[in-house]
Design brief:
22% strand; 13 strands; alpha/beta; 294 residues; five-stranded mixed beta sheet
C-alpha cells in the first residue's frame, strides 16, 4: 500500500502481471486514488518488484525511482533476453529510466549476531522516516552438518554500510563479535557503533515496544525482503515485568528471528539519535538521471 504525504502518494514496488490490477484495487479499497501516486520507489531491479511500474505509471503519471546499479541491471537483462529471442511478456517490460536514487541516506544500524549454526543480521533504519532495510542476513543453509557464519562477508557488509551511508548510530549485540566491534567502532568513530546487549531486559523491552507501536501506527515500513518478513513472523512476544521481549518459538527452534531483533535495535538507535537533536537529511536523495550531482 502507498504512503500518503502532503505531496501525494508514494508507492514502494509495483508487483508484476497478472497482479498489478490487484494492487490498484487494494489501493482504492483503502480509500486512495491510484491517480494520486506521485512516486514509485523500486527497492531493486527484479521483475516481481518493477513489473507493474509501467502500467501504474500510465494510470498515475508517477515518477519511477531506482538506484543506478539496478537501472543498469534491468536494462542489461532485458537487452540480453531480447537478443536471445526471449523478449519480455506484455506488461513485464522494464519501465523507462526516470529518476536515480543516490546512496548516502542518514541511517542507523542494528546488528544481532551468531557464530555457529545460528543467523546474523545487519539492518538499517533510515532516520528521516523509519524505513527498514536488510543490509545483510546470513543463515545456515538447509541440510545436515555444522555451519559457521561467513565472518569476512559480515565484516565487508558493516564496512560497506559505514562507507556508503551516513551512519549516525549503531547498536550491536556483541557476544560473538567483540573484537570486530572494537575495530569497527575505532575505524568508523563517527558512526557511533556501540555494544547493546539484548539480554538486558529493561532496555530491550522498551525497544521492542517502540517498534511494535510504530508498526501498529503505520509509521515504519520496510524494503519487502521476504527473509526479513519471515524472521518477523517467526518472532514471539514474551511478556515480562520489563515489557515485551522477542523470543523464538522454543530455545531450540530452527526458525530464526535475528533480522527482527536487528530491526528493533536499528529502530531504537534511530529514536535515540533523534533524541539528541540530530538533524537528519529529511529529503530523499533522488536526482534526475541527466542532472549533475552537487
Amino acid at each position: 500500500l502507498p504512503i500518503s504525504t502532503s505531496a501525494g502518494l508514494i508507492l514502494f514496488d509495483a508487483a508484476q502481471e497478472p497482479y498489478v490490477d490487484y494492487v490498484l484495487d487494494n489501493i482504492r479499497k483503502v480509500g486512495f486514488d491510484p491517480k494520486n501516486i506521485k512516486y514509485i520507489l523500486l527497492t531493486h531491479g527484479h521483475l516481481d518488484h518493477f513489473g507493474g511500474a509501467a502500467k501504474i505509471q500510465k494510470v498515475s503519471g508517477a515518477r519511477v525511482a531506482l538506484t543506478e546499479v539496478d537501472w543498469n541491471f534491468m536494462a542489461t537483462n532485458e537487452a540480453n533476453a531480447i537478443k536471445n529471442g526471449r523478449p519480455p511478456k506484455p506488461g513485464d517490460e522494464a519501465p523507462k529510466k526516470d529518476m536515480v536514487i543516490k546512496e548516502g541516506d542518514t541511517i542507523t544500524l542494528g546488528f544481532d549476531s551468531g557464530a555457529v549454526d545460528d543467523a546474523t543480521a545487519l539492518v538499517a533504519c533510515r532516520v528521516s522516516d523509519g524505513f527498514l532495510k536488510v543490509l545483510g542476513l546470513w543463515e545456515k543453509p538447509d541440510g545436515p552438518g555444522e555451519w559457521a557464519v561467513p565472518r569476512a562477508e559480515v565484516d565487508a557488509a558493516v564496512v560497506s554500510a559505514c562507507e556508503t551511508y551516513r551512519v549516525v548510530r549503531g547498536y550491536f549485540d556483541p557476544p560473538w563479535w567483540r573484537e570486530e566491534l572494537v575495530r569497527w567502532s575505532s575505524e568508523y568513530e563517527a558512526c557511533q557503533l556501540v555494544a547493546w546487549e539484548t539480554y538486558r531486559a529493561p532496555q530491550m523491552g522498551k525497544a521492542v515496544e517502540a517498534l511494535t507501536a510504530a508498526i501498529k501506527n503505520a509509521t515504519v515500513s520496510h524494503d519487502g525482503d521476504r527473509r526479513f518478513a519471515r524472521h518477523i513472523f517467526n518472532a514471539r512476544v514474551k511478556r515480562s515485568r520489563h515489557g515485551d521481549l522477542l523470543v523464538k518459538q522454543t530455545d531450540r527452534s530452527p526458525h530464526k528471528i535475528d533480522a527482527a531483533v536487528s530491526a528493533v535495535l536499528a529502530f531504537q538507535a534511530r529514536l535515540d539519535a533523534l533524541a539528541t537533536d540530530l538533524k537528519p537529511v529529511l529529503a530523499p536523495a533522488i536526482v534526475d538521471p541527466w542532472s549533475e550531482p552537487e
